[in-house]
Specification:
By secondary structure, the chain is α+β, with helices and mostly antiparallel strands. The chain is built from 18 helices and 32 strands. The radius of gyration is 27 Å and the shape is globular. The structure holds cytidine-5'-diphosphate. The site of cytidine-5'-diphosphate (CDP) has 24 residues, from helix 13, helix 14 and helix 16.
Length: 785
């Protein structure tokens, strides 16, 4: 079921660049395309050491480089009261430029402003920093010992950042102890990077009115405006944040980075516009990483496979500053969704986070704040349990799914799942993949010694942060908003507090307005990302746009419809109670021949409105009553080459349930993109550090992004279980494939290797790792024989 508006696959309604007298040229609508008279370029000096005292910074040679105008250091910023930035959830602070010491390789140490980009880079290279290396803490387990204290600036003299827990600790321990079957496995979700196509960047200048004009790659422009005002003291009305086309975000463009602050300081100090555009290496080494969770998963079950208890204890590597972009009350994000699609009677989850000498982050990489880690933990755990029980992974899942008649379902860890039909979604996936035939084929191949695997992931996630009683960022509640204006001709504009990074809001929001108001979607303009025009909202990440901003659009449109009804009654010369909205127009009840269209009403709203207030506009701020709980059943079929360890993903079926679908083609595109990212994490991507804290993945030759050659063919489909509380019945979908797919890939590879006795391999399942696991397992078998 998709809503009945005309499909809009070819509509390209785009946000128009605001008229700006100082704008002189532009190729596209990206920050890097902007150019202003007198613009300077900013390049950042970065640390070569992961942990070192800064003995001195000498800028004299840099100042001699032709074109260099100024250099600023951490001490300069500290003197201006801008040495440190608060991190998003407000529990830590982060150096803008290093003060006293550096805490990770590639940390920002000084800022160089010059007439050209090349001069800025040359200037940065000419800055001489004298470092005295300090011992490096490269993993959270070493950090735990507190032998090297990384953050003496903090009151608590420990590397331990926080302990967070949820659920019934004692009840879980009791249930686990009395469970006839138990599994326990450490799973590491490696450090990854969202690696959007365009890196981060900004242009900052103060206009002739002294107002900060800040063009920036931001997924949350209004939050930036408020945060900048609070940090810099510039009144909020004197800050204009414009977030143009982003070239992808995936959570990477939520935090406020040092480069942004330096650009603003430079623009203020020098009195000229300043542009800062990250290089790919800067993006991969210093901006928000994701994951890096070491999870000890323990599941208890009865002998016939009914789950009895779940315990997950996580050690989290947060890097040098606790800059995870999580809502205030959720330092470990929504990790509590770790019970997944299963009816656990009792559960307990805990996370301990530590500082290390690595880049800060912990951002929601296409993920509703740690939901991907949670989903991986439970979906791998269920497969390990199936193996322990000698049970089919599908049978185990079906036995433990939350039954569809138990929704809304209160989970053991405090969530109220809104709706779902997990059996149906899995059945569609099994039917599509042809499970029985695959099992037969697998048995035949196994008899021949070939390694074929079938892997499942039947995940549930929580998206749409979030209800104001639980969710805020820097104290600002996580509602979202929409403003719709219908013009006299029936064309219109919709603005929201969300911000598309390529998800197609320009298409789907126009469709939603068209559906609610019976207008032509081709004539509905969509504009996002400009704090002067958009109503206040918390932005786009964690698949919150459809559940929150999308709902706000529906509600604003319905407000317009109510106003329009009054005008329709006037036009139809009947009382308002006699008018009904049917088949996309107003009609006199019981008289199908007496109708007016919304287009006619729109014209009348400006030309013939009698005693009714003129105009046809509405704004709505939507505070969601609950999250939405999209889910899916993913099946992966792989062949593993016994000689080389190479895995071929032969088939991948993804059946998603995101409630009512607004645009099937956009949803399919979202799923394709997310699956490709899941594939990359499962097989090729990891931000690695050596024991000395050196980052080993500083560019795209070391941190691989799959091309169309490596990417498998995706087979997608949908089931539809509407969300009961969303005004359109829709749930978010953007992150589901990234959340759900890694476990399906890993489960398939481990299933292929299970005849050899391999129980687990941590991602990424690179050829050499899989080959080593095969070789070791064969050697072990040979020894036992
Ligand atoms: O917050 P974000 O836009 O990343 O994620 P989303 O709400 O899951 O939406 C991603 C894209 O899919 C948007 O263009 C949505 O309007 C569209 N979508 C849809 O067509 N139907 C759904 N049920 C959910 C999302």
């Amino acid at each position: 079921m998709s809503i009945q508006a005309k499909p809009l696959h070819s509509v390209g309604v785009r946000m128009k660049r605001k008229e700006d007298p100082r704008f002189i040229q532009g190729k596209g609508n990206y920050v890097d395309d902007l150019s202003f008279p007198g613009m300077l370029y900013l390049s950042l000096v970065r640390s070569t050491y992961p942990h070192a005292e800064i003995k001195s910074i000498d800028i004299s040679e840099a100042m001699k480089v032709p074109g260099v105008k100024a250099v600023i250091t951490g001490k300069d910023l500290e003197a201006a009261g801008l040495g440190w930035l608060p991190t998003f959830h407000g529990f830590d602070k982060q150096m803008v430029l290093a003060i006293g010491k550096v805490l990770f390789q590639y940390q920002e140490v000084a800022a160089v402003f010059a007439e050209t980009r090349a001069a800025a880079v040359d200037g940065a290279e000419a800055v001489q920093v004298d470092y005295a290396p300090l011992p490096v803490v490269a993993d959270p387990f070493t950090s735990k010992t507190d032998k090297v204290l990384l953050r003496p600036d903090r009151e608590s003299k420990t590397n331990h950042i926080f302990h967070w827990e949820v659920g019934d600790k004692d009840g879980t321990a009791r249930a686990m102890a009395s469970s006839p079957k138990r599994i326990k496995q450490r799973l590491w979700f490696q450090r990854c990077h969202p690696a959007p196509l365009e890196p981060c960047g900004c242009v900052a200048y103060f206009d002739t009115m002294g107002r900060l004009q800040f063009h920036v790659t931001s997924q949350a422009p209004h939050v930036y405006r408020t945060a900048l005002s609070l940090v810099t003291g510039i009144p909020e009305d004197k800050i204009h944040v414009i977030s143009p086309d982003l070239g992808g975000g995936f959570g990477n463009k939520v935090p406020v980075y040092p480069g942004y602050v330096c650009a603003i300081v430079g623009a203020l100090k020098i009195g000229r516009p300043v542009k800062w555009i990250e290089t790919r290496t800067e993006n991969l080494t210093s901006t928000g990483f994701a994951r890096d969770y070491h999870m000890d998963v323990e599941i208890g079950a009865t002998a016939d496979g009914k789950v009895t208890a779940l315990h997950v204890a996580t050690t989290a590597d947060h890097g040098a500053f606790d800059a995870a972009a999580d809502p205030t009350k959720y330092p470990a994000g929504i990790f509590g969704i770790v019970t997944g699609s299963y009816a656990f009677p009792v559960a307990h989850a805990e996370v301990d986070a530590y500082f290390t000498n690595k880049a800060p982050g912990g951002i929601a990489y296409r993920c509703s704040f740690r939901v991907t880690e949670a989903s991986y933990a439970i979906e791998r755990g269920m497969d390990i349990l199936a193996d322990e029980l000698g049970m089919d992974a599908v049978e185990l899942r079906k036995k433990n799914f939350i039954p569809k008649d138990q929704f809304p379902y209160p989970s053991a860890l405090g969530f109220t799942y809104d709706s779902g039909d997990y059996h149906k979604t899995l059945d569609v996936a099994l039917e599509t993949i042809g499970y029985s035939a695959l099992l037969k084929e697998q048995a035949e191949k196994r008899a021949r010694g070939e390694l074929m695997g079938i892997g499942f992931s039947t995940f549930t996630e929580a998206v749409g942060a979030g209800p104001s009683k639980h969710f805020d960022i820097l104290g600002i509640k996580m509602f979202d908003s929409a403003e719709i204006r219908i013009h006299p001709t029936g064309a219109g504009i919709v603005r929201t507090g969300a911000k598309s990074q390529g998800q197609g809001h320009e298409t789907t929001w126009a469709q939603v307005v068209a559906e609610e108001l019976g207008l032509d979607p081709q004539t509905i303009m969509v504009e996002e990302g400009d704090t002067d025009t958009a109503p206040y909202g918390l932005g786009t990440y964690a698949s919150r746009s459809t559940p929150v901003a999308g709902a706000a659009i529906v509600m604003a449109a319905r407000r317009i419809r109510e106003k329009a009804r009054k005008i329709a009654a006037h036009l139809l010369e009947v009382g308002e109670a006699d008018v009904e909205w049917t088949d996309y127009k107003f009609q006199v009840k019981g008289v199908p021949s007496k109708t007016v269209t919304m287009k006619e009403v729109a014209f009348a709203a400006y030309t013939n409105m009698a005693q009714i207030e003129p105009g046809l506009e509405a704004t709505y701020y939507y505070d969601p009553p609950n999250m939405t709980y999209p889910n899916g059943a993913y099946v992966s079929v792989v062949d593993v080459d016994r000689e080389t360890g190479e895995t071929k993903v032969r088939r991948f079926v993804a059946i998603d349930d995101c409630g009512v679908v607004i645009n099937p083609m956009i949803v399919e595109g979202q799923v394709h993109g997310g699956l490709t990212e899941g594939f990359a994490m499962a097989f090729i991507q990891e931000i690695q550090y050596d024991a000395e804290g050196n980052n080993l993945n500083t560019n795209f030759t070391d941190y691989l992004v799959p091309t169309s050659l490596e990417t498998p063919h995706w087979e997608t489909g949908n089931t539809v279980t509407p969300s009961p509380h969303h005004p359109m019945g829709a749930k978010g979908v953007g992150e589901s494939p990234n959340v759900g797919s890694p476990a399906a890939f890993v489960n398939a590879v481990i299933d292929a290797l299970s005849p050899l006795g391999v129980r687990h391999i941590d991602m990424p399942l690179s050829r050499d790792k899989v080959w080593r696991a095969i070789r070791d397992a064969e050697a072990k078998k040979a020894k036992q024989a």
